[in-house]
Amino acid sequence: MERIQLGNTVFEGANNVYLLQGDETVLVDAGVATEPTRGEFVDGLASFGVTPEDVDRVFLTHWHYDHAGLAGMIQQAGGATVHVHEADAELVSGEEASLIEDRTLQQETFEAWQLPDGPREELLSFLEGHAELAGEDVDVTPFSGGDRFAVNGFELEAVHLPGHSAGLSAFAFEDDGERQAFVGDAILPKYTPNVGGADVRVESPLAKYVDSLVEVVERDWDRALPGHRDTIEEPAERAREIIGHHRERTERVVDVLDRHGACDVWTVSHHLFGELDTIHILHGPGEAFAHLDHLARHGVVEREATDYRLAVDEPDVGALFPDP
Ligand SMILES: [Zn+2]
Ligand SMILES: [Zn+2]
Question: Gene3D superfamilies from the xrefs (predicted)?
Answer without folding.
Answer: Ribonuclease Z/Hydroxyacylglutathione hydrolase-like
